[in-house]
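User: Sequence for Response regulator below. Tokens please.
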Amino acid sequence: MKILIADDSRVMRQIVVRTLRQAGFGDHDLVEAADGQEAFDKTTAEKPDLVISDWNMPGMTGIEVLRQLRAAGNNVKFGFVTSECTPEMKTAAEASGSAFFIVKPFTAERFDEVFAPILG
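Assistant: Structure tokens for Response regulator:
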């Protein structure tokens, strides 16, 4: 499977990649995007099976990326790994079709719990 990791922080993308490996999902094809527009473009062009997105990114926020993908008919599994978590954000994410919402800091156990049903 192909997984797109979208976060404007290169360090955070590396942490997500490392945590995916620690959780046992390191054998998947991992693609990175450094902002919201790149996340949208790569999701459209490379057709990943899963998108793990930050909420706040330049260009487009993660929720804007999700909404534009859904508006374009793209139903990729999409969710958030973010440092912010309000009930309004969770509600907006769920209403837009988000499959998960992981709050930073996260653990390999949390990734396993969330991604095992998605990635098998």
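Residues 10-22 form the longest helix (13 residues).
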